[in-house]
Amino acid sequence: MPPERRGKRGKKAPMESAGSNIDDLPVGVLQHILGFLPAWDAVRTCVLARRWRYLWMLATGLHIMGNEDDDMEELRESVDHLLLIRGIAPLETCELRFDGIADGFPDSDVRRVILWFRHAIQCQVRVLRLLLTGNCDHFDLRDQHLVSRHLMKLELAGVVVTESFLDLMGCPKLEQLAIYGSDLYAKKISSESLKYLSIASFRFSNSFRTHIHAPSLVSLLLDHNRYNTPVLESMPSLVDASIRIVGNSVDTCVYCDSGDCNSCQGTIPGNCNCILLEGLSKAKHLALTVESKTSIFKRDLRRCPTFSKLKTLLLNDYLSLGLDLDAITCILKHSPVLEKLTLELFPKGSHHKMEIKGSYSPVQTIAAISEHLKMVEVKCEVVDERVYRVLKLLCTFSIRFSFE
């Protein structure tokens, strides 16, 4: 028999920790990881080992990016070759991003990028982004029609689109749409499934008014509109809405503060009874910011709907003061369950230095406003005559303030 060991026990071989080597991961996990890399970096992994040779072709993400330092002809050939090799393997995410290069695209390259975009649709992509920076007014999607049973999120920047593209009824699973810095020449944006809509730094037509039909919408952001403000159709599921209108809208009217808004009817093409407020009337949280003498709110307030679910409301300086306090009075009287009101009474580009807080404390029941109103915040630089007018109005509704 072998002699018995004494003293220190024999050292055991160290155990390798599970999953310490990336090659031990399942193929599906590796394809998911490769999907986060830029396309060319994912392709380069084919030289790592035999097992990696074709993994990039089935990566769940495809990120094609170009910038002003790239040679367009080389980029064009590389992307064409890449898409030809990978075929129509399913994609979770596809991003086509061109920074500072798209404004130099000839028409042939615009058509080629659109083909890449449509190739992603054929790959049953769920999240699709087409993002262009620079002067991209000619990047035209107006003749395109989007149909996909798989697309869930779409993000566009720097493009021109019309209703043929924004008729999204052919995308029954689309829930998120974000459009930035684009021209939207559409008479209607339509989707039965859309839940989140964000449109910023955009331009609508100046000859007709776009209607937004999205009855399933939960969240809405409209920021920095140019030309005609869109008509919001019924949104019964709306929870959060933020609307910001700037001074270069054709809905701007020099007469809207004169007390006779009939002067500005000609600036509102169409025969809409209510442009914004009716569509926003089911929101639970609402922020309204106007940076011009717009006729839209003056007109809408005449037909002010009941905000039956509204819990929190934010109004900016112009809506609070520029409409002779009509906006505050009207919306307060039409918000039966309002809990928090915030008024930002300071000019654009500045910040508030004072915050005055108040609450609804009626000495007797006043049915004119919500009995649920728990907090009123007035943010301002200084309590001047303008701010005093607002505080005086709110006090008539039995709102008491404390200064901080």
UniProtKB/TrEMBL annotation:
Residues 22-56 form the F-box domain. Residues 127-225 form the F-box/LRR-repeat protein 15/At3g58940/PEG3-like LRR domain. InterPro entries: F-box-like_dom_sf, F-box_AtFBL13-like, F-box_dom, F-box_SCFL_complex_component, LRR_FXL15/At3g58940/PEG3-like. This is F-box domain-containing protein. It comes from Urochloa decumbens.
